[in-house]
Fold this sequence. Notes:
Blueprint: E1 5-8, H1 19-27, E2 30-33, E3 37-41, H2 44-49, E4 59-62, H3 65-77, E5 87-90, H4 93-98, E6 109-112, H5 117-124, E7 131-137, H6 143-150, E8 154-165, E9 178-181, H7 184-193, E10 203-207, H8 209-217, E11 224-226, H9 234-250
Parallel strand pairs: 1-2, 1-9, 4-5, 4-7, 5-6, 7-8, 9-10, 10-11
Antiparallel strand pairs: 3-8
Helix pairs in contact: 1-9, 7-8
Amino acid sequence: MRIKKILVSQPKPLTAKSPYFDLAEKMNVQIDFRPFIQIEGVSVKEFRQMRIQILDHTAVLFTSRTSINHFFRICREMRITVSDTMKYFCVSEAIAFYLQKYIVYRKRKIFYGNGKFVDLVKIMKKHKEDKFLVPLSHIHKHEIPKLLDEGGFNYTKAILYRTVSSDLSDLKNIDYDILVFFSPSGIKSLEQNFPDFKQNDIKIACFGPATAEAVKKEGFRLDVQAPTAQAPSMTMALEQYIKSYNKAKAK
């Protein structure tokens, strides 16, 4: 059997210019999208139980657009007015620009790195006098607090949102040739929604070493992995695999 149907465990791209649509057309395969996980914000009651005073901090460190959304959501729900003197440190320029959704960008002190947290820490070292608030998910990279501790920063970790499994009960059967995952939480969602799931001939593709580790830990077979030197993106890895697999089946 040739590979014909792929399920990507992410939301469908909002733009028509997506490498997934290009892949579907080029390889003549059907690609469906369905998020296996979703984000839930903590409630004001939960946040108050953390005993964190936002205005006691002089800087906020953002690792994603989601962290920005939930920081300002909590501020809005608690009727907190953030001072114009608050500094904002962002992992990347794209995340920094996203702040424009909530603040007047040109009037604030905003700093950003090149996409790597370790490089942002270098910028933060020039502001060691600040007290940093770090909005995060309950599941986050251990690198973040580790580097902040090693750097001797005064910071508070604030869990403002959670990554939880989506309800996939309407799928009933997983009638796909390849399942594509991007996080360990996606693998967890697969198990929670389909406790009797048997991989058999279904191929599993994943992005990132942590996701690969989760696949193997749960006893599943990992068939497609990205990024690699030959396939830096998931769509490239899928294209290479499909070509090889379908060619072998055609013999």
